[in-house]
Amino acid sequence: MVRFSFCSTELVALPQGALFWPARRALLVADLHFEKASWFARFGQMLPPYDSQATLADLTALVTATGAAEIWCLGDSFHDPAGCERLPQIAQDMLRALTGSMRWTWITGNHDAGMVDHCGGTVMAEAEVDGLVLRHEADPRDPRPELSGHFHPKLRLNLRGRRVARRCFVAGGNKLILPAFGALTGGLDAGHPEIVRAVGRNAQALVPVADRLLRFPIAA
What we know:
- By secondary structure, this protein is an alpha/beta fold.
- It has helices spanning about 35-40, 50-65, 85, 90-100, 195-200; strands at about 5, 10-15, 20, 25-30, 70-75, 105, 120-125, 125-130, 130-135, 145-150, 155-160, 160-165, 170, 175, 190, 205-210, 215.
């Protein structure tokens, strides 16, 4: 894991699309979108119904690998406010095993606004933790250091004639946007005007690999 400094706070951007905060032993993830497949199924679009279980398996593996003692979910954890009620029993058991073993906080987003806690953890609209604001969507008007999600950023590059897309973090002076962690999520180009507007000038796409953090300037 490669550490980097964001607004004087030491963090680790993980290749899986999560952020680790060593000083707090905290794992931060955004846009899990649990039960997205079952939401689409209600409207006749049938998708493999294993997205929640796959996302939880990845998250459980990261908790084990990092030794995380707390998890912060930065909004849109469920694809809709009733998503927790549709979780299959195996996914419910996996989620409750996590929420029951550590400090777990759900920051609500636009998809899960009004979320009611049925799966453990604490539900909040946003939080300020050790000088960092944790919310779902970046607020360009807020000068405080901020971690958020919402945009599902992806870096798209042409490499030797091939179009390559990788989920990425996007960092500005005091804003850091996390990629979507969910197994069934798309992505918005990291250079999209809405992302650039959210993080401000001199934005960079950050792509963690095994032993390095690659940085790609984003043109305004």
